[in-house]
Amino acid sequence: MAGSLLLWAAALLLLLAVGGAVPPPPPPEEAARMARFVLHNCDWGALATLSTQEGLRGRPFANIFSLSDGPPGPVGGSGVPYLYLTDMEISVQDLEINSNASLTVSLAQTPYCKKHRYDPQNPLCAHIIFCGSIVKVNDSEAGLAKKALFSRHPEMESWPKDHNWFFAKFNITNIWVLDYFGGLKIVTPEEYYSVKP
């Protein structure tokens, strides 16, 4: 335990010395905060569904989606992964049959891991796996979803209106954190939403 704290402190000092766009992550002992931190600092994730497509029916199918839990910045987001979707998209067609999915986000998409020379598969390049379901947001939440997504992905505002885009969120039921050696850590949604990133 003391060794892991020393390693984390050394990484923090190195990051502060060289600067960087991504603030230092929480220590490995704070798995719920780490999950919030990684999600907030990622602009996209790999969403896995059970395919309904001919030739792939019932098999896992992963696809990249832009996401946001709130506007970028140190304040932190809501923790809710919002997405902007259309029924024309192949994975969304899967979700119409079975809304269950998993979502993986990784600090590998930020400058943090490259700066520390962490391979994306290295546990120190933290990644989070969320399981749950995709649900359309209701009218009262649509404004929040729009602000979260369009602040990070301004191109979305100009996407073709005839594609019938809609705001959705990932309804989290299970969370796994891999941010250090020794295996995955389990975080409950209650723990996840109760911490400040």
Automatic annotation (TrEMBL):
Domain CREG-like beta-barrel: 26-194
Pfam families documented for this protein: CREG_beta-barrel (PF13883)
Family: Belongs to the CREG family.
Keywords on record: Glycoprotein, Secreted, Signal
Assigned GO CC terms: cytoplasm; endomembrane system; extracellular space
Coiled coil is among the record's keywords: no
Coiled-coil intervals, chain numbering: none
Signal sequence coordinates: 1-21
Name of the protein in its database record: CREG1 protein
Location(s) in or outside the cell: Secreted
Keyword Transcription regulation appears in the UniProt entry: no
